[in-house]
Write a structure and sequence with these properties.
By secondary structure, the chain is mainly alpha-helical. It has one domain: Winged helix-like DNA-binding domain superfamily/Winged helix DNA-binding domain (Arc Repressor Mutant, subunit A). It is built from seven helices and two strands; from the N terminus they run αααββαααα. Strands 1-2 form a two-stranded antiparallel ribbon. The chain is elongated and about 60 Å long. The two termini are 31 Å apart.
Length: 143
């Protein structure tokens, strides 16, 4: 799994908590990456209507209430593929190759279902509240 999901959640928390629209450069500085990667992550979120930006105006705005935005929605906006997949070309000449798909299919489907069930229970707001619990009094004043 790549880091797009964690970068997206990081970015969405920043956008949700900011009083002004944030540019990809400002977000990249917080995430510790470059602005082009941030734009690559934000593109699918914009396409799904989770965030918006306006022509000629720098910055992104959240279009969905953090309480209504599930982590599953964020994940699915970024990834159309299942969490787990089976390699496509196992050899039929090998006994393991002939049976690997049938051996793993139900297991991977169960794992996929379990992850989906957990991600749908959690919202962006849950992440914001968890983060705020960890902040010092001084850090809370900076938000």
């Amino acid at each position: 799994m790549d880091t797009k999901f964690s970068v997206a959640v990081h970015t969405l928390i920043l956008i949700a908590e900011s009083k002004v629209p944030l540019s990809s450069e400002e977000i990249a500085q917080s995430v510790g990456t470059n602005s082009s990667y941030i734009r690559k992550v934000l593109g699918p979120l914009k396409k799904e209507g989770i965030i918006s930006s306006r022509q000629g105006v720098s910055g992104f705005s959240l279009e969905v209430n953090p309480q209504d935005l599930t982590l599953l929605q964020i994940y699915r906006a970024l990834n159309q593929n299942p969490f787990f997949d089976i390699h496509q070309n196992p050899s039929n000449k090998c006994i393991v190759g002939r049976h690997i798909k049938s051996t793993l299919t139900n297991l991977l489907e169960d794992m996929e279902s379990a992850i989906n069930n957990e991600l749908i229970k959690k919202t962006l707001n849950d992440c914001i509240l968890k983060m705020k619990k960890e902040l010092t009094t001084e850090e809370l004043k900076q938000i």
